[in-house]
Amino acid sequence: MGNWRRRSRLADITGSALLLASLLVSCGVTDPGAVGGSSAPAPVPSAITPSANTGAALADAVTGEALVAQLRQLEQITVAADGTRAAGSQGYQAAAAHIEGQLLATGFYEVQHQPFTIQRPHPGESKLTDAQGRVINQVPLSFSPGTPTEGISGRLVEPARGDGCQSGDWDATLTGQFALVERGGCSFEQINQVAASAGAAMVIVSNNRDAGLYGTLGSLRPEYVPITGVTRSEGERLRRRLADGEVMLGFTFEQRIESYQTYNLFAQTRGGDGQEVVMVGAHLDSVPDGPGSNDNGSGSVVLLETALQLARLGTTPHHKVRFAWWSGEEWGLLGSTHWVNGLVADDPAAIDRLAAYINVDMIASPNYVIGVYDGDGATFSNEALPTGSADVKRLYTSYFDAIGQPWVDVEMGSSSDHAAFVPSGVPVGGLFTGAG
């Protein structure tokens, strides 16, 4: 990595950390009369006034050098274990223990685990062929069931009407057939369930744009049938052949699903008013193929160093601050979703007390881009965003504008842990600098 990339990565991660530090001290400074009694989370107050002294002190205390040192240490711990922080791996356990030890040493936080079980797929070889033996390029979706060793075969069919997302889109029975649908009409899960309930042997999803299709079912369910993705051009080729007559296909796929124990890690300030809690999170897990220094070691160490310096200063925030290191994000936001769903079921009042959730994911890219989640829909229209998300965005953009730092809107989407909070109406926001 060249010097410019080192400087850029340092600048990105440092700038993100300084802003986070300032926000955590100032967030939750609200009119106490507005707290309590509502059935939905209170929006982030529009009149949040940063504390000049504590905010500046914390921002000064979180240095780029300390962040890079933390990131290097996290990478070393990961590599020394099994080379990855994938949920359930030794590397994840070691990294989480490393973070927990530093938090406990401060005495400033109540530290908790939330254990849960995840399923991780271990896909093997797969092959989709036609009756003439031609191999059709495809990639099985994550958590797709496998096939028997001898494989499966069937006749290719399309929806009789619609996009295949409703049972009425198909003829009465699909027994033993391969259902071909285009991506975009509904979720992969719904496509699979509808086709499977009609008797399909498998599902082939063609992309709706010029790229390979990579997706996930999120979890393994007994009702699922094998499902694989093909490019748009491959899907069009299959449809042309189908228009000319019967198309027979065969499919083999080796899939092994294993269960793993993992946990989310939380640290909440002992001091502060618990009637409104500002929550900030980053997923600690990585993809299986590496140590994930940017995705998301960067966000994890920014949370850690900010928490450590907040404790060192001894500053008690007006409202409690809860830090979260999530597991299972790379397998479909499993950790954050598990936590939120648990609160919704067992303690809905705790959801109501969340003033905002700030997500920190991939903030050390050397590309010089500062991305702010588009909480007000200025660039990416999103009517589903909870009230208050625009205020979270404004905290970021006002800060960047004040220091002359260019920024761009990035789409909220549903690919990181903030998405787990949206259905419950919790205001969300965060930063993202990209993967490269």
Give the secondary structure arrangement, pairings included:
Elements: H1 3-26, H2 52-61, H3 64-81, H4 90-106, E1 109-130, E2 135-136, E3 139-140, E4 152-157, E5 178-182, H5 188-197, E6 202-206, E7 227-230, H6 232-244, E8 248-269, E9 273-283, H7 293-313, E10 319-326, H8 334-346, H9 348-352, E11 354-360, E12 371-373, H10 389-403, E13 408-410, E14 428-432
Helix pairs in contact: 1-2, 1-3, 1-7, 2-7, 3-4, 3-7, 4-7
Helix count from the secondary structure assignment: 10
Radius of gyration: 24 Å
Give the DSSP E fraction (strand runs of 2 or more residues). 15-25%
Low-pLDDT residue intervals, each spanning 5 or more residues: 1-16, 25-50
Give the biggest beta sheet: 14 strands, mixed
The termini sit apart by: 12 Å
Q: So what's the overall shape?
A: elongated
State mean pLDDT (0 to 100 scale).
Answer: 86
| Count of discrete domains | 2
Order of helices and strands: HHHHEEEEEHEEHEEHEHHEEHEE
> How many beta-strand elements?
14
CATH topology heading of the largest domain: Aminopeptidase
CATH architecture assignment of the largest domain: 3-Layer(aba) Sandwich
How much helicity do the residues have? 25-40%
SSE-based structural type = alpha/beta
Tell me the CATH superfamily of the largest domain: Zn peptidases
CATH uppermost class of the largest domain: Alpha Beta
